[in-house]
Specification:
flat; 6 strands; two-stranded antiparallel ribbon; about 45% strand; mainly beta
Length: about 130
């Protein structure tokens, strides 16, 4: 049976809340679902609030795998684009990662018309040829 290899690095993060309402407790959730605890709790005052934390980024690979290198593909459902460069740098420090791509969910979807708005009018040269 192939042996599983775990590579792990720590990535420091700084979260800046710009002018949050004063008197509100903010923290970072450690864990997931109902199994979590809140860490780095701070009460906001007037001005910005800075939360510092470190996350562990892990990569599991299997010895004997035909894949010696990978490109990490990350879907960011929270849309935190200001953190992408730091995450990519951290992932690229892992042994088997040659590059990383982070894609954010779109903040909104825009409907695009299939034809330009003036498509029904025709060109000026076409109108002259038709005698209009």
């Amino acid at each position: 049976m192939p042996k599983e290899i775990k590579t792990e690095i720590a990535v420091p993060l700084r979260i800046i809340l710009v002018a949050p309402p004063p008197g509100v407790d903010f923290g970072i959730q450690e864990g997931k679902g109902n199994d979590y605890k809140t860490i780095a709790i701070q009460r906001s005052k007037v001005g910005n609030l800075v939360l510092d934390c470190t996350i562990k980024v892990s990569l599991y690979s299997v010895s004997g795998s035909r894949y010696k290198q990978i490109i990490a593909f990350i879907w960011d459902n929270a849309g935190r684009t200001e953190q992408h460069d730091l995450l990519i740098q951290g992932l690229c420090k892992l042994d088997h990662v040659v590059d990383a791509v982070v894609v954010s969910r779109p903040s909104m979807m825009v409907e695009i018309d299939k034809k330009p708005p003036d498509a029904d009018k025709g060109s000026e040269s076409q109108k002259k040829e038709d005698g209009e």
